[in-house]
Amino acid sequence: MASHNRDSRGQRLQPLAAALLAITLGFGMASAQADDLPKIPTKKPLKVGFAQTESNNPWRLAETQSFKDIAAKCGWQMVMTDANGSNSKQVSDIQSMIAQHVDLLVFPPREEKPLAPVVLQAKKAGIPVILVDRNVDQSVAKAGRDYITFIGSDFIDQGHRAADWLIKATGGKAKIIELEGTTGASAANDRKKGFDEVIAKNPGMSIIASQSGDFARDKGRQVMETLLQAHPDVTAVYAHNDEMALGAIAAIKAAGKQPGKDIQIVTIDGTKGGLDAIAAGELGASVQSSPFFGPLACDVAQKFAKGEKVPTWVKVSDRFYDKGNVQESMQYGY
To answer: pLDDT tens-digit profile of 11-48?
Structure first.
């Protein structure tokens, strides 16, 4: 990975994209082939639909920007929508793009089950689909059969890494509050699964409360305030993203406790706010979950258009941030 500073967002995407292109074949050794799915036209510009889930946090804003930044270079004419946190709005946005006959659909499904049927609708209409960040219910729509691929992190592994750090940081003894992401989202489901299964193997560690903060800072703060009152003996927090962790930090301070001392906190994302909190000693660690999917989606689409095999899961490799490397890693925050 490149380690030198990059001042502009466009420049920063290049080393990140190169680092993230650690492609594995995921579960099973399946791959999507051009004959199995709707084809991507080789014309330029391509009309590409990007249906965002919401734009209420730095992660989503950075993800959207990565598509805007790569569009001209990739030869894409973008059609962009924002579902404002609504599954039904995201489905409607995608159906509108299907009606507009876009050449390619790229989107992060807000939740696994509600967004799976619209993937099948796109396939029926002859429009290829690439999913980024979050996946859909594989029993309804399957990668390599109904859509090209899922580009994203191993959320279960992220949960494992967060749990491993917390066990070491607390000496294997902690009473944990877990702030879950959006109910039904693949990221929330798998980050919980990965973390919980590691914690379950450590008898000194116990999850005393677990509740959704919907990946939002203010909701995370509100939930943490309530849970602190119910569980004043809490000694650790695991938040499914940085925004909820930052909300939890505010709630902990308001309760007269010191985050990072009285209560250890581990999270996932690697936002600038999260890295700043690590540097301040309030947040213990954050597993990176990169939002820069634009360059990756462009690369995958071009390969598929040429008839090359594409893995059904393009797995993103994630960094890990703690007090030991946070200063040198500030360039990767967003």
So the answer is: 333 334 433 444 333 333 456 554 679 999 989 999 99
Per residue in 134-163, pLDDT (tens digit) is 999 999 999 999 999 999 999 999 999 999
> Phi and psi of 48, rounded to 5°?
-115, 125
Domain ranges of the chain: 9-153+291-316, 155-288
In the three-class reduction of DSSP (H, G, I as helix; E, B as strand; rest coil), residue 75 is classed as coil
Answer yes or no: are the C-beta atoms of 211 and 240 closer than 8 Å: no
Q: Give me the phi and psi of 129, to 5 degrees please.
A: -130, 135
Q: Taking the domain 9-153+291-316, which CATH number applies?
A: 3.40.50.2300
- CA dihedral angle for residue 212, residue 85, residue 50, residue 300, rounded to 10 degrees: 0
| Omega prior to 41 cis, within 30 of 0 | no
Phi, psi of 317 (to 5 degrees): -90, 130
pTM score of the predicted model: 0.88
Asked if 219 contacts 247 with a C-beta cutoff of 8 angstroms, the reply is: yes
Query: Which pLDDT tens digit goes with each residue over 239-287?
Result: 999 999 999 999 999 999 999 999 999 999 999 999 999 999 999 999 9
First to last CA, the chain: 17
Q: At what angle do helices 58-74 and 242-254 cross, to 10 degrees?
A: 160
Chain-centre distance for alpha carbon 312:
17
Distances (CA, A) of 107 to 66, 90, 118: 13, 9, 11
Strand partners for 129: 105
Under 8 Å between Cβ of 288 and 321: yes
Rounded CA separation 225/221 (Å): 6
| Residue with token string 């989202």 | 185
- Would you say the CATH fold of 155-288 matches that of 9-153+291-316? yes
Q: Which residue has the tokens 């994209």?
A: 17
Q: What is the DSSP string of 234-262?
A: --EEEESSHHHHHHHHHHHHHTT--BTTT
- CATH level 2 (architecture), domain 155-288: 3-Layer(aba) Sandwich (3.40)
